[in-house]
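Methods — Computational structure assignment.
A single polypeptide chain was analysed. Its primary sequence is given first, followed by the predicted tertiary structure written as structure tokens.
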Amino acid sequence: MKRREALFSLGALIAAPVAAKKANAEVLHGYPQDMALDPNFLPKTIKRGGARAFLTDDREVKTLKAVFDRFIPGDDLGPSASEAGCLDFLDAQLSGAFGEGASVYREGPAQPHEEQMLQKAQFIATPRERYRTGLKALETYARKTDGASFADLQPNRQDEILSGMEIGEIDLGKDVNTKAFFELMLMNVREGYFADPLYGGNKDMAGWKMIGFPGARYDYRAYTDRTGQELNLVPVSLIPKD
């Protein structure tokens, strides 16, 4: 086939679906009346303060609460991380697909040069396992260096330990990538504080109110010309109305 013929043939193929679509539209007499989503595909609302699936050890909960509340302490601008439901958020995440590392490649080989090449470490352990190991190691470190549980230390000392973890001056042991564990906790507390309340955190949409985010509204076209202006919109959550 010559090049000119090939181009004409391609044009015919492109034009054909248009004609067919027009013809089919003439014989289309109805459409599905029930357009509601299957409830099984809708996210489930997380209930705060109820029985937890993963964070069931009191020592782990106390340690994690202390860490989260140093990351986001309560003040005049809003509640602390734990008051906003970040522990409930994390429990739900660790109990599900995130916790089991469903979307993360965890097979070998995990070589030392991987972190240098990818700018982040490869983890064979799941986030669920990393939390369990990391919280235990943090508690062990606090008791060894300060003679007390991490949750019972003074806030300034807690900050010193967390800062040391962040910059790599503190090592929680061979079983923990200390800096990466710090980053994991910081990422998750941020997610819990600013995610839709449907997922357990951001209680009363406090995080959204703090930054002026209007939430999960259907349409923002009426405000597209008001960039940088205070909209004073009441935040809207994905939690279904009764």
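Note: Residues 15 and 21 are 10 Å apart (CA to CA).
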